[in-house]
Amino acid sequence: MDILSLYNQTSGSTTGDPSAEREAVMNEVIDQVNAEFPAKKLSAPTQAERAEIQERVTILVSAGYRRRNQRPGAQYEEALAQELTRRLLGFGFLDLLLPPERTDISEIAVYSSGLVQIMRKGAVRFETVDLRPEPGEIWRVLDRIIGPQNRSLNEANPVVYAKLPPSPDNPGGGRITALHPAIAPPGKNPAINLRLFEQKPVLPEWLIERGAASAEMMADLGQAMQAGTRILICGGTRTGKTTMLSALSTYLPAAWRIVKIEDPEEIFIDRSTVQSFEARPKAIGTDVAAVTLADGVKVAMRLSPDYLIVGEARSGDALEALFSAMTTGHSGASTFHAESPRDTVERVITEMGMHSQARPAEIQRTLASAIDLHLQIGIRHDKRRVISISKIAKELKNGNVFFEMVWRYDESSTPDNPRWDKVGDIQKGEEHA
After folding, report:
1. Residue 161 CB coordination number (10 Å)
2. pTM value?
């Protein structure tokens, strides 16, 4: 029997182990462990201390059943002891999906119905796992994650954005979004989405192997990065925008000073000349102000960077700060949510227009002046693909931003044999409409 099946046994009533008896044993063990071990050791145990505590939990579980004249079996008792250890020291049911237990997952979704799904690395669709945590367990795990960050999920604050803290087994940590049952019917559980980050660089070869781009295309993009080209990477949800930006960052010259601005931090660039800046929300119930992505860009401009790496620019103020940096001599790259080159222009006009009330023509001129290269990513045959790479002319054509395509995806490609056509040159060509 696998560990998930054993977990599900310990999460509900089983033959010969009524729910009340199970809960009594669990509460008894938790109380005893809390009494025997100091809170500091329980909150941040070393590997040796974790092993010591788990051994003690195992003994207490067995003793609890013996006192009740029950013998559910060594395998069952061990599974319950592991579950109790996760509750006491870790993230409960989530530990079954996090490293070191699982290293193939990029995203975890817990529905308000209690359904749990995962997305494997490199995939674009979720799949259901045989894991059914109880409502109380979901709340306990969520509180354990967001509590130390001075966050609370309740009806007055029904949406929480927080970080999954890094650990030795999961050094990249993650980003968590949680919704209160009041706004996530059917109203029993909070809804949770957890995106995991890898604390290692994304290599261009990884994208080539998975068919997201061709070797020649990545070589072209590498030359563009080394030349300090200003790039905007666009795509829809889960198309791999951040992954592409991470991969392109590896091409930057080793001696360059890179300033990275994100909300939250998720791109890992393995070099010593990177200075990170992470935005933060306003701390609820305090006078601590928010620090936005736009604030980070403005600060970065005073740090003398050779290249700016900006996480997804989601708002008008972030776009305005980004384009201001790009038009005043700074090189850099960022991501933006848009489904096509034209959609990019329309969404930039909308976001910046709402923020600054600038006219569409002014915004288009700013975009054309700020960005050299537009990279569009999409999903084809349930695979992430680069759809197009286009140069952006510095002058408008008939009042609109003009895209001069360099690479385009062959839409007649088969799922296992993606093809791209090179129709221009990134380094050469007319810079006008």
Report:
1. 15
2. 0.79
